Amino acid sequence: MNHYPASIRQLIKLMARLPGIGEKTAERLALHILYASDHLVEELARSILDVKHNVRLCSRCFSLSDAELCAICSHPARDAAVVCVVEQPGDVAALEKSGAFGGVYHVLSGVLSPLNGVGPDDIRIRELVARVAAGGVREVVLATGTSVEGEATAAFIAGRLAAFPVAVTRIAAGVPMGGDLKYVDQVTLKKAMESRRALG
Ligand SMILES: [Zn+2]
Fold it and tell me: What is the pTM of this model?
């Protein structure tokens, strides 16, 4: 690597810090960038900064957004009375790709994990209860993963929502035990959403 000029070595070093990119791939990407058009490289650099500066959390569902409200929360055709609870923004992307859900989301930003010191106040459960308490929600679909933590989180939330006149359902069949929504194929995810069952 030392035979490269310092600026290329620096780019390789930074690229190699990205997940899934080893030094060989980093080298290939750095050289690709070196020989790519000015236009592409400038757009890439601008896009990286844009993501960093402009993406924030939707003030309603806590998914990733470019604005105060995300594209899903502000879409007039989405059913705001059906709220799907997921662990992470990546789960929203997975469910959207499956096309199985026409409601809105609530991103917890984690799961309950007592062993790791993550309690109910550390994820966005209070915000979910507040959303339901505010009215207008008919169904809450619990789509946390099927890991022990995901199941425990779903059960905890169902308990917290029991006092409200709202149907609480759980996506079921198809999502493998310990499964992370992001890695479940779209057909399976669609089935799991369609065959959700009532909790409690
Ligand atoms: Zn939103």
Answer: 0.79
